């Protein structure tokens, strides 16, 4: 879908690897923020695992699986083998999205109480075949978050008191760029970059949410 970027989905983890380093902005628990990485690891953990040392957990898996360094790491209690992949392209831009979804701890942002969180439930990773400015990457994170909220609303999910659902208490997102192809100043949903990010994220999130609902009644 994007030349030089591979995706491996399995029960232990979802792993994305670039032939060359990717520029990444993420809320990852390991090496989050702005950084460069050869790989993004979304590691499955048991829902009751205290995850006291995420870096050690992800590092042990990465070395065992031969994942090239440097990597960024996310943790999820969702079933990684149920991950869904979406992609989109327009005007020379391409995007690939991979998401893992669990909906057992829904929240309404600004309405739900503070909660202790250790590992994420809706993790969304998007790789863009483009050369976005840093602000465009930030904008793209917002775009993915907007798509997630719309997908949850479309699925008919609400809080017990009727409040709208914005996500879960432990969501994470990562946007990675190959650094080649068209330069992008903006990443909002009306820009070419934001459009492919939104389309790819929606193509992954909507079936992943439906799959969880069907399996959990």
Q: Which terms would index this structure?
A:
single chain; 217 residues; L-amino peptidase D-ALA esterase/amidase; 8-stranded mixed sheet; 27% helix
Describe this entry's structure for a reader.
The chain is built from three helices and twelve strands; from the N terminus they run βββαββββββαβββα. Helices cover 27% and strands 33% of the residues. The mean pLDDT is 95. The protein has one domain (5-216): L-amino peptidase D-ALA esterase/amidase. The strands form three sheets. Strands 1, 2, 3, 4, 5, 6, 8 and 11 form an eight-stranded mixed beta sheet that branches. The radius of gyration is 16 Å and the shape is globular.
Which structural class do the helices and strands define?
alpha/beta
What characteristic shape results from the CA principal axes? globular
What is the number of E strands? 12
Strand content: 25-35%
Radius of gyration: 16 Å
Q: Give, in order, the helices and strands.
A: EEEHEEEEEEHEEEH
Spans of at least 5 consecutive residues whose pLDDT stays below 50 are none
Portion in helices: 25-40%
Q: Tell me the CATH architecture.
A: 4-Layer Sandwich
How many independent structural domains?
A: 1
- The mean pLDDT is 95
Distance between the termini: 33 Å
Q: Please give the CATH class.
A: Alpha Beta
Report the major sheet.
8 strands, mixed
Q: Give the CATH topology.
A: L-amino peptidase D-ALA esterase/amidase
Q: What's a quick, concise take on this entry?
A:
The chain is 27% helix and 33% strand.
């Amino acid at each position: 879908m994007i030349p030089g970027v591979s995706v491996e989905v399995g029960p232990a983890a979802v792993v994305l690897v670039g032939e060359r380093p990717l520029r990444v902005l993420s809320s990852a628990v390991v090496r989050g923020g702005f950084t460069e990485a050869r790989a993004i690891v979304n590691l499955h953990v048991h829902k009751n695992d205290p995850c006291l040392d995420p870096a050690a957990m992800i590092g042990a898996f990465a070395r065992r699986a031969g994942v090239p360094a440097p990597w960024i790491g996310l943790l999820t209690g969702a079933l990684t083998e149920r991950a869904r992949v979406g992609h989109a392209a327009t005007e020379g831009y391409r995007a690939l999205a991979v998401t893992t979804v669990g909906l057992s701890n829904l929240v309404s942002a600004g309405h739900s109480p503070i909660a202790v969180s250790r590992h994420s439930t809706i993790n969304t990773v998007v790789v863009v075949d483009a050369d976005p400015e840093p602000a465009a990457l930030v904008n793209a994170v917002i775009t993915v978050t907007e798509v997630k909220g719309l997908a949850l609303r479309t699925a008919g999910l609400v809080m017990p008191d009727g409040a709208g659902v914005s996500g879960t208490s432990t969501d994470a997102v990562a946007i990675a760029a190959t650094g080649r192809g068209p330069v992008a100043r903006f990443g909002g949903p009306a820009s070419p970059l934001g459009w492919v990010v939104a389309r790819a994220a929606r193509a992954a999130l909507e079936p992943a949410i439906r799959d969880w609902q069907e399996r959990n009644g």
